[in-house]
Amino acid sequence: MTERASPLLDRDYNWQPEALTPAYKSSRLRAPRQPLLSLPETIKDVAGPVFGHNILGARDADLVTNAAAPGHSAMGPRILVHGCVLDENGKGVPGALLEVWQANAGGRYRHKNDDYLAPLDPHFAGCGRTITDAQGRYQFLTIQPGAYPWPNHANAWRPMHIHFSVFGHAFAQRLITQMYFEGDPLIALCPIVQTVKDPQAIDQLTAKLDMDRAVSMDHLAYRFDLVLRGRRSTVFENRPEGN
Questions:
Q1: For the chain, which residues make up each domain, given as ranges?
Q2: How far is 97 from 54, CA to CA, in rounded Å?
Q3: Considering 82, 123, 138, 148, which one is annotated as catalytic?
Q4: What is the mean pLDDT of each successive set of 10 residues along the chain, which is 243 residues long?
Q5: Catalytic residue at 28?
Q6: What is the dihedral of CA 17, 48, 165, 52, to 10 degrees?
């Protein structure tokens, strides 16, 4: 019996943010001033360079310990972040490389340009990676990142968030987004989040508390699924036009 194809849905252009949103100050400089051009991809763009599964270390998906000295671990509330990478039909995408980076529990990145007064954690690098399994599932053990101030406007604060980068089988196939945390009141105040018009799209960027995956006396858990393509694709920063 032939399987019936899913119906095609028109793209919802309100799902993705506009390039110019004056309340998000950086967009005033980065938004294009000329009409966009469509450039065809070449074989070099989509075929290479490629990555192999052997580039991952044993603790790459454990941000609590992957930069810690022996016998130490990162400071802050431990959390498990897990979910699925899905295609436009809701089917899991196996073999996708996920990289994450984030601030520490005090809201500071381990980066030379981050001069926020919060202390650095010597046992936390704030980055990790993993590859989705045969069902498209992934998970990271990490520290809940802190909120931090930024110079967008007076008393501006970024919500707690984790950056995600999703690769296909070649490094040119890359999508970038941010994951927020359910219940954070700063989400509604953030000009970056406010560039997304549809509340459902913002909800899709917000990880949900998952007590079924929490471990007593150890860590909480949050679920965050990523949809790569289609009408309800996750909002990706480097593809504001959609996929």
A1: 64-227
A2: 12
A3: 148
A4: 55 71 81 76 63 79 97 97 95 94 97 94 96 97 98 95 88 87 97 93 97 98 95 85 59
A5: no
A6: 160
Catalytic, out of 123, 129, 161, 180 = 161
pTM: 0.86
Which of the following is catalytic: 78, 108, 129, 158?
A: 158
Beta strand pairing call for 174-181 and 161-167: antiparallel
Among candidate residues 108, 123, 129, 163, the one labeled active-site is 163
What's the pLDDT at 24?
Answer: 84
Peptide bond into 185 cis (omega under 30): no
Please tell me the CATH superfamily of domain 64-227, with its number.
Answer: Aromatic compound dioxygenase (2.60.130.10)
- Separation between Cα atoms, residue 82 and residue 13, nearest integer Å: 28
Q: Is 109 a catalytic residue?
A: yes
User: CA torsion 235→240→241→243, rounded to 10°?
Assistant: -50
What is the full DSSP assignment across 52-87? -GGG--TTTTBTTTTTSPTT----S-EEEEEEEEE-
Would residue 161 show up in a list of annotated catalytic residues for this protein?
yes
Query: What is the rounded distance in angstroms from the CA atom of residue 182 to the CA atom of residue 205?
Result: 10
Residue with tokens 């130490």: 72
Nearest CA among 159, 215, 228 for reference residue 189: 159
DSSP state of 186: T
For residue 239, give both structure tokens.
């593809």
Catalytic (active site) residue 158: yes
**Catalytic option among 24, 109, 138, 222:** 109
